[in-house]
Amino acid sequence: MEEWYHYPLLIVVGFTVGFINTIAGGASLISLPVLIFLGLPPSVANGTNRVAIVFQTAIATAGFKSKGVSTFPFNIYLGISALLGAIIGAQLAVDIKGETFNKILAIIMIVVVLIIIFKPKINLSELTERTTGKYLWLSIVAFFFIGIYGGFINAGIGFVIILFLHYFNRMNLVRVNATKVVLVFIYTLSALIVFALNDKVNWQVGAILALGNGFGAWVSSRVSVKKGDGFIKTFLVVMVVIMAIKLWFFDL
Fold first, then answer.
1. Is the pLDDT reported for residue 106 higher than 80?
2. Taking the CB of residue 165, how many other CB atoms lie within 10 A of it?
3. Which residue has the higher pLDDT, 239 or 64?
4. Is residue 240 over pLDDT 80?
5. Max Cα distance, the chain (Å)
6. In the chain, which residue ranges form alpha helices assigned H by DSSP?
7. Closest to 43 measured CA to CA, from 105, 124, 133
8. Are 167 and 105 in contact (CB under 8 A)?
């Protein structure tokens, strides 16, 4: 990444990702390929992307806490389980060949697009939560494996977490998101450490991306965009498909 225009581009991409993640989710499917297209090796792009994710989820966690929304200690139990899985996933990502990683990312991007398009409607009515007893233990086991995926690539994992917490644990969307940001923060921090220890993080690029990401999240949290949700999802789907095709068929 030697061209001067890469850095303002990163801020724009970061802003877009932060904005979309706040209202629709899945925007890491944009930031990760962009980092690769800008010249970072796939494993370094993967590690660098975690800097922005940690920053964004830290801000979101503080925001939910300030509003009195918390699922403690349930979120910590799942976070620790996901953390252990993420360490395994991150190490796998560090060791994998760049070309293989690009192919896997392309496949995951298409799968997540299908989830975005066909995911079931979520009922916003009050639900009876299932976060204790066998449901807690099954969730802990499930999030260990979710953590492996999150540590490996993270892209699109927000949709998986939302669907699991809502349909299995029967949380409403506010509490789902409050739980999700804590989980992602915990396991992404551990994954970031693994990438950093293996010298797979470009801190300068990550900081610039995080700056735009945080600003985008801040703006979108203060703007009513429900009416534009369909447009955002359409934009996300189109961009992801284009980048998946490029990752699969063209050399970077």
1. no
2. 28
3. 64
4. no
5. 55
6. 6-23, 28-37, 42-66, 74-95, 98-118, 133-152, 157-167, 173-197, 203-220, 229-249
7. 105
8. no
The dihedral formed by the CA atoms of 193, 43, 154 and 56, expressed in degrees to the nearest 10: 60
Q: Cα 98 to chain center, whole Å?
A: 20
125-149 burial: b if 16+ Cβ within 10 Å, else e: eeeeeebeeeebeebeebbbebbbb
Q: How far is CA 90 from CA 54, 98, 117, 153, 198, in A?
A: 15, 14, 28, 8, 10
Looking at residues 18-42, what average pLDDT do you find?
80
CA–CA dist 131, 139 (Å, integer): 8
Share the mean pLDDT of the chain.
Answer: 82
pLDDT in tens, 2-20: 677 788 899 999 998 887 7
Q: How far apart are the C-alpha atoms of 20 and 238, rounded to whole Å? A: 14
Q: Where are the domains of the chain?
A: 6-249
Specify whether the CB–CB gap between 5 and 38 falls below 8 A.
no
